[in-house]
């Protein structure tokens, strides 16, 4: 069956079997190999992507469920080809990676956190990345990287994402419901998280 996936701002059409996971479609059909296959049971977080801005395990979602939603992979986080996002740069600056296998999932999870929470603390970061397993770093440098990125973003004049309000699913399936931006009351400087 044909699916139209909005991946990193590009509509990609793929012919998939109904049981094909989003992970397999991203890696095998679209050749976006930054999304890693880890446990394939939704436990490790290596396959994390953003679906309408929220971190999800691509190994647990069928490609047909993601049809019509905005999918962001690690390849789509940077602001321009050959550049790194603030959070990617922070991971490099603080040595927040060793083998790098968990890094794309960690970065996407942290990216989602920093888009929705403007004054993060250590507990927020630990909670956000608690679903992503890293066997190399001991998490210290990862937490430091997210704190470093949060501090940089706080000091910049970059407008970050608006809060997303979930509405009824237009697709009629169990995929996360489509997001609708809330009023600009959540813009930085207005006192909300």
TrEMBL record:
Annotated region (Disordered), positions in chain: 168-193
Domain 2Fe-2S ferredoxin-type per the UniProt entry, residue ranges: 1-77
Matching Gene3D superfamilies: 3.10.20.30, [2Fe-2S]-binding domain
Gene Ontology MF terms in the entry: 2 iron, 2 sulfur cluster binding; anaerobic carbon-monoxide dehydrogenase activity; metal ion binding
Key words, A-Z: 2Fe-2S, Iron, Iron-sulfur, Metal-binding, Oxidoreductase
Database matches in InterPro entries: 2Fe-2S-bd, 2Fe-2S-bd_dom_sf, 2Fe-2S_ferredoxin-like_sf, 2Fe-2S_ferredoxin-type, 2Fe2S_fd_BS, Beta-grasp_dom_sf, Diverse_Oxidoreductases
Keyword Cytoplasm included in the entry's annotation: no
Superkingdom per UniProt: Bacteria
EC number: 1.2.7.4
Signal sequence annotation: none
PANTHER family membership: OXIDOREDUCTASE WITH IRON-SULFUR SUBUNIT (PTHR44379:SF5)
Protein's UniProt name: Carbon-monoxide dehydrogenase small subunit
Organism the protein comes from: Afipia massiliensis
Lineage of origin: Bacteria, Pseudomonadati, Pseudomonadota, Alphaproteobacteria, Hyphomicrobiales
């Amino acid at each position: 069956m044909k699916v139209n996936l909005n991946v990193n701002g590009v509509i990609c059409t793929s012919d998939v079997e109904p049981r094909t996971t989003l992970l397999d479609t991203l890696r095998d059909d679209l050749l976006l190999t930054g999304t890693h296959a880890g446990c394939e049971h939704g436990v490790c977080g290596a396959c994390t992507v953003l679906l309408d801005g929220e971190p999800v395990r691509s190994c647990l979602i069928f490609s047909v469920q993601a049809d019509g939603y905005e999918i962001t992979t690690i390849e789509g986080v940077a602001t321009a080809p050959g550049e790194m996002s603030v959070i990617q740069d922070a991971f490099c600056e603080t040595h927040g990676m060793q083998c790098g296998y968990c890094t794309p999932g960690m970065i996407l999870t942290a990216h989602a956190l920093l888009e929705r929470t403007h004054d993060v603390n250590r507990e927020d970061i630990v909670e956000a990345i608690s679903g992503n397993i890293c066997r190399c770093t001991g998490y210290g440098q990862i937490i430091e990287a997210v704190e470093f990125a949060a501090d940089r973003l706080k000091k910049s004049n970059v407008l970050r994402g608006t809060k997303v309000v979930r509405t009824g699913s237009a697709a009629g399936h169990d995929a996360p419901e489509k997001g609708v931006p809330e009023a600009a009351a959540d813009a930085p400087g207005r006192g909300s998280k």
